[in-house]
Amino acid sequence: MTARPTSARTRAAWPDIGRVELAGLLAALAAAALVAWLSAARPADMPVWAPWDFSWTQFLAAILGLGWYARGVARAAPGAAPNVWRQAAFVLGVGSIYAVLLTHFEYMAQHMFFLNRLQHMVMHHVGPFLVALSWPGETLYRGMPAPLRRVFDPPALHRVMRIVQQPALAGVLFAGLICLWLVPAVHFRAMIDHRLYDVMNWSMVVDGLLFWFLVLDPRPAPAARTSFAVRMIVTVAVMFPQIIAGSALTFSTRTLYSYYDLCGRLYPSLGALVDQHLGGAIVWIPSAMMSSIAFMLILNNIRLNEERTAAEEVETDDARNVVFASRWTGR
């Protein structure tokens, strides 16, 4: 008597989900549960690429993202799949974020300031940059289960995206969050409070994705949220707060981050001030390099769009000439 209502409720909660999609979700949950148990019960036996401090949300985001992307590539129509370099960029982007968040590197980043800065550089710059460069939205959408695709369709979600990806706000958030987590008091609290530590890490990844998807959008406006010129301005503008913050740490004569002295440094021979100077250089130099690379990629997107527009105009002119000639000859 109770089997039918339960089945109906299940179909209502998961409409249109196929067996392959359900099997994939269950396999991801089973893998996450196994890794979580091993991390808790046998931490000393875990390899270096396994999670140091397991996180369900981070692990599932990585494994499901890769799985849905692979499924989206497999389901693409002939000639519609992303090319090899875009696929490689997506895998490398997700893999780099996984490497600094869900391996033993996280332990290292909790015990050396310059490694913590390297972790944030990958989470906020390198990983999201590569993911955005792969432009995976259509492929991920195609690989997701149907119920989850509906989550990304509501107009309210698109309105929120338009707000947070407004160029001025996106630039302020991008540079501002880096500087916020560098404030010594805020940094100390985030490193000792597990919940705030998770907020810090998630904010780095999510904000990096939002910013790089905005500026690396290969489409011209109005399909993109803003023009190529505005994107170039924002890309250059975010360099300066990071350069100022990084140079201030690099040339500082006093230590600012006592947390690493209290928790114990991974490399005791590396002094606190040298550690801080190395961290400042990471904030300073790679961030400027990433903006420079993004600027050149935007210029390349302008060139590609101009060539595409010119080719379309030539095709249109050729079509008009054919029509005109046929009318003139009467054929």
Task: Put the structure in a nutshell.
The protein has helices spanning 3-13, 19-41, 56-74, 84-101, 105-109, 113-134, 137-143, 146-151, 155-164, 167-182, 184-192, 194-215, 228-237, 239-250, 259-263, 272-329. The chain is mainly α and 331 residues long.
Which characteristics define this entry?
0% strand; disordered N terminus; globular; mainly alpha; 331 residues
Largest sheet: none
User: What is the C-alpha radius of gyration, as a whole number of Å?
Assistant: 24 Å
Total DSSP E strands: 0
The multimeric state of the shown protein is: single chain
Question: How much of the sequence is in beta strands?
Answer: under 5%
* Unreliable residue stretches: 1-15
Class by SSE composition = mainly alpha
Helix content: over 70%
What is the terminal-to-terminal distance? 74 Å
Principal-axes shape call: globular
Can you put this structure into words, describing what you see?
The protein has a domain at 85-94 and 104-134 and 151-318. The radius of gyration is 24 Å and the shape is globular. Mean pLDDT is 87; it is low at 1-15. It is built from 16 helices and no strands. The chain has helices at residues 3-13, 19-41, 56-74, 84-101, 105-109, 113-134, 137-143, 146-151, 155-164, 167-182, 184-192, 194-215, 228-237, 239-250, 259-263, 272-329. It has 331 residues and is mostly helical. Helix 2 packs antiparallel against helix 3 (56-74), helix 3 (56-74) crosses helix 7 and helix 14 (239-250) packs antiparallel against helix 16.
